[in-house]
Structures are given as structure tokens and as C-alpha cells.
Design brief:
Elements lengths: L1 H13 L2 E9 H6 L7 E7 L4 E11 L1 H4 L7 E2 L3 E17 L2 E16 L5 E18 L7 E12 L6 E3 L2 E3 L4 E3 L2 E9 L1
Antiparallel strand pairs: 1-2, 1-12, 2-3, 3-5, 4-10, 5-6, 6-7, 7-8, 8-11, 8-12, 9-10
Length: 187
């Protein structure tokens, strides 16, 4: 991660970037008992475009995957790991609201804890992201929060797959709800 931040710092010096940001994905982590790390780092440019790299490393619990919120698994007894990177280019369009595109690479693994059956998949993705960002969060000039919903198409996807009595749903089209909170630095 530090090399990524150094890379952003050097890019910022050669283009019209004026802000560097680093955030922690509080939303995904809260659903998964704060195991592993997910978050984002990026640059805001003087023309208001933002370049963001997001990292997702989630140890998804059985309760999360089978919940009505996640909708990744029908049935019980499945846990999993979701790992990936996604690069976003976004542009604000109205009072904190933004929209943009993405490319990424994700690896998913799901395991039935009763039968020991598993499903693994790795694939590039393309997608879009819509969201809302508040800078100077809570009246603190160097804090921000960002609520974003990325929608992605998995290029090498899998179809619905049975693992014991549970069904892991196809990952052809996926989305998340991310709630990042972090530091915003003028550069």
C-alpha cells in the first residue's frame, strides 16, 4: 500500500492533482467482523475528476453471505473470501454526487462448511460507480466520507453453483455498497 501511495504522490506532481485521499471501507468491514482490510486511495484533480484504486479483502461470514443484504448465496453453510482491486475514474456532477467507470480484477472463493465443496473464480471486471462524497466531514477539514455503489460485469464469470444444499449465485453482474471514511490531504 505504501508503494501505491508513493506512486500517487509522483503522479500528482506531474499532473494537476490537488488532493490525495486514503480511506478505510467501514461498511464491508462492519459486515465481516473487521477481518482483513478493504479501502481506497486516490487523487482528486483540479478539474474535479478523481482517480481511485480500491482494494477489497473480505472474509465473508456465513451470516453475511446468506443475509437478504448480500444476496450472494441462497441457503446456509457457505463462507467465502473476496479479494480484488478496482481502478475508478469518477466525476462529480451535482453537489457531492458523482458517476464514473471502472476496471478491476477479483478473486472469489466460496466454501460449504458442511460438505467441504468449494467454488473459486478469478476474472477481470468492468463497470460503473455512482455515489456521494462529503469532504470536511463532521466539520474536520482533512476528513472525508464516501458512500459508493459500484456495479461490475465479471468477464470470466460462473453460473449459479450448488455447494451442498446452498446455491452460490452467478457473479456475472455484481455490486457492493461501500462506505469509506478517511484522510484528505492537500498536495
Amino acid at each position: 500500500m505504501r508503494y501505491l501511495l508513493l506512486g500517487f504522490y509522483f503522479i500528482a506532481g506531474s499532473v494537476s492533482a490537488n488532493k490525495l485521499f486514503v480511506g478505510y471501507d467501514l461498511g464491508e468491514m462492519a459486515f465481516n467482523d473487521f477481518r482483513h482490510f478493504s479501502g481506497e486511495a486516490g487523487l482528486s484533480f483540479e478539474d474535479s475528476w478523481r482517480l481511485t484504486i480500491a482494494h477489497m479483502n473480505v472474509a465473508a461470514t456465513e451470516a453475511h453471505l446468506s443475509s437478504n443484504f448480500a444476496t450472494a448465496v441462497d441457503g446456509d453453510g457457505v463462507e467465502g473470501d473476496i479479494y480484488g482491486y478496482e481502478l475508478f475514474l469518477t466525476k462529480p456532477f451535482y453537489s457531492g454526487w458523482y458517476l464514473g467507470g471502472s476496471v478491476g480484477y477479483y478473486s472469489n472463493e466460496y466454501r460449504n462448511i458442511h460438505t467441504k465443496q468449494s467454488l473459486s473464480n478469478s476474472s477481470p471486471t468492468i463497470g460503473i460507480k455512482a455515489g456521494y462524497r462529503q469532504e470536511s466531514a463532521f466539520g474536520v477539514p482533512f476528513l472525508y466520507w464516501d458512500l459508493g455503489v459500484p456495479f461490475r460485469y465479471t468477464i470470466d464469470h460462473y453460473d449459479d453453483t450448488e455447494l451442498g444444499d446452498a446455491t452460490v449465485k452467478s457473479n456475472q453482474f455484481e455490486n457492493n455498497i461501500w462506505f469509506n471514511i478517511g484522510l484528505l490531504l492537500q498536495i
